[in-house]
Amino acid sequence: LAALTLSGMSQAIAKDEPLKTSNGHSKPKAKKSGGKRVVVLDPGHGGIDTGAIGRNGSKEKHVVLAIAKNVRSILRNHGIDARLTRSGDTFIPLYDRVEIAHKHGA
């Protein structure tokens, strides 16, 4: 990834250098040459976090999970190794979602 350096208020210059982070996250697994692409979909919410609630009582956590499962199916049909951060009604903290993606090499 290229880091973005801001020069003044309206000018941005992209530099070809690695981003430096200090958030304590693990680094993604190394990619195998010629390996299958991996995509990790994060439906968000889940468990105690319902997200938005629709006029008729639909919960965002259920809607986004259904969408993510459909997208995973489409991606798999195109030869992409697609995974979900959650496959049921469970809450996963944001930090753990990043770790899940890194564990799968996404």
TrEMBL record:
GO terms classed as biological process: peptidoglycan catabolic process
Residue intervals of the MurNAc-LAA domain: 39-106
Compositionally biased intervals (Basic residues): 26-35
Region Disordered, residue ranges: 1-43
GO MF terms, alphabetically ordered: N-acetylmuramoyl-L-alanine amidase activity
GO CC terms, sorted: outer membrane-bounded periplasmic space
Entry protein name: N-acetylmuramoyl-L-alanine amidase AmiA
PANTHER family assigned: N-ACETYLMURAMOYL-L-ALANINE AMIDASE, N-ACETYLMURAMOYL-L-ALANINE AMIDASE AMIA
Pfam families per UniProt: Amidase_3 (PF01520)
SUPFAM superfamilies (alphabetical): Zn-dependent exopeptidases
